[in-house]
Design goal:
Shape of chain A: globular
Distance between the termini of chain A: 34 Å
Strand content of chain B: 25-35%
Radius of gyration of chain A: 21 Å
Strand content of chain A: 15-25%
Low-confidence stretches of chain A: none
Low-confidence stretches of chain B: none
Shape of chain B: globular
Radius of gyration of chain B: 21 Å
Number of strands of chain B: 12
Mean pLDDT of chain A: 89
Helix content of chain B: 25-40%
Structural class of chain B: alpha/beta
Structural class of chain A: alpha/beta
Mean pLDDT of chain B: 89
Order of helices and strands of chain B: EEEHEEHEHHHEHEHEEHHEE
Largest sheet of chain B: 8 strands, mixed
Oligomer: heterodimer
Strand order of the largest sheet of chain B: 6-7-8-3-9-10-12-11
Number of helices of chain A: 12
Amino acid sequence: MHDDVLISVQNLKTFLYANGRCNRAVNDVTFEIRKGRTLCVVGESGCGKSITAASVMQLLPELSRIEGGQIVYQSPGGPIRIDQLAKNGKKMRALRGADLAMIFQDPMTALNPVYTIGQQISENLRYHTKLKPRARRAKTISLLAEMGIPIPEQRVDEYPHQFSGGMRQRAMIAMAMACDPHVLIADEPTTALDVTIQAQVFELMEKLKAKHQTAVMLITHDMGVVTELADDVIVMYMGNIVEGGTVEEVLRTPRHPYTRALLDSIPVLGRGKDQKIDPIQGTTPDPYERPPGCQFAPRCPRCQPLCEQALPPEQVLGESTHRLRCFFPVGGPNEA
Amino acid sequence: MKPELPLVSLRGLKTSFPVRKGVFQRTVGQVKAVAGVDLEIRRGETLGLVGESGCGKTTLGKTLLQLTKASEGQILYDFDGVQKDLCQLSVREMDEARRKLQIVFQDPYSSLNPAFTIFGSLEDPLRRFGVHKRADRRRIVGDLLEQVNMKADYMDRYPNEFSGGQRQRIGIARALCVNPELLVCDEAVSALDVSIRAQVLNLLLRLKQERGLTYVFITHDLSVVEYISDRIAVMYLGKIVELADAVDLYRGALHPYTLALLSAVPVANLDHVKNRIVLGGDVPSPVNPPSGCPFHPRCAHRLARCETEAPQLKKHVINGHDHSVACHLIQE
């Protein structure tokens, strides 16, 4: 294990319950978030990527529970088992917002419309620091300035509806960065934004990561974002990590048929009209009635009888960090 | 041979919405969503219309179908050799013209009526345009569903039984019901997951070949528009700033906004050389657009005259291809 690991998640299982049925939304997921590195979690809607993030933050919706595995946070004062803390207990609340911070997808619903931006950012400071009101206000203004918001002295007293989408998202980042967190979890932070604004937000996140050595976990469905920002990648499908490793390993030599199919199904800028995109056949299965074996088996072109019976175990390739869950990976020993 | 008429010519098209305020709902301003667009849509092409949110691309699409009324300008549509201005047609004539123009909406969840079966939703336009026998309508709807890779017997189901990708395909089938010439796809794949998006994109390409359709493809996703379009128009604050063949636009964009837009797209290619141009600030409000060139407050290369004088969309010929751009910097 590396000594720069801040969060290590081992065999995490988080299930959701509805109408007396169980959705194994996150099923046996293992990964690490390391200092100064960006881990991208990529997958389609319903693959469990947001539930994984919510588990780490203990922000799971009602009627859901961590059923197994462990989440360990290497705090400066020693390891803390996050999964064993009470959801709203004192210890979890002390961590959340201070050591672990989160940016949500939709800044309009994540910000409270009846409080000013300044009040919402300084709430975090009031709770986690001993700063006096005047110092808190000064810190809030400097945070907004750091995020590139023009005239922060004036903007700090404005309400979320007076901000544009990009500025709201930057205010959210300011809120998350208020207490210099060690771990930043961003759940699709730019999905609601235009590309030029997305570029601004990414530039800012990169800058902050370099400056504070923050460990970032970035959830996205956009392979382009992964390529640009990730150091490490995990690809999720229906609650499992199907493939993981460094960005080079996963994107240059994708071994899992799902990763391969995902990459083949997106048009890539600059390749023109002649590129061929291959859709993945079928649709994602009903999460309440999952296939018994490999989750991707019903849509997989390489599916064999074994795949329909058992979930493939996770295997690590050689000496690398490249790992996957597949009985018959692309480019296996039997292939040229 | 006479030069072929373009299918649609937009001449100085403007669409604005009033901003009302106060007890008496007095008009205090105009949102100039489309602020003077000249554009020709050729028969059989796919014209991509790209831009950020609020640039007026959706309003332009809706104005084209007269779903919102233009406040100025002409939309000349070629009805078998006779050009008619869609803005001047009576309600009844426009109804008839809608047989030729159809639209696919962005959100497949809100564009289908949940109280109607699929057949119920799709038979309406058929009945309107003279297919009086129910058996005929069922046959046509069944055929259409099969054309969009669905089973004919799905027509008796309700929209809630379908996934997003399936609904979007039903939306396409509905638009094709009346055998249109022009299909406006307004962010037709934006709400779909990537693997499903590819299914719908390839379906659209196939239908175009089979039926000789003309598409106006409105989207904010530059990778998708490159894949599907023949020509691309880039919009900014209600105006077209650049218009060129897709290949030329991606290889040699001229307008500083287009360059910034293209550089901002995350590319899923590890060998892609990153040269991100980060624009400062936000898109200005269309209620109160900047003077001169609408892009000048964010432009790194602005000249003094950009602040006062709005550049016109001028046609240049580069390597034998038409390439129109509205920028003072581009002279030759």
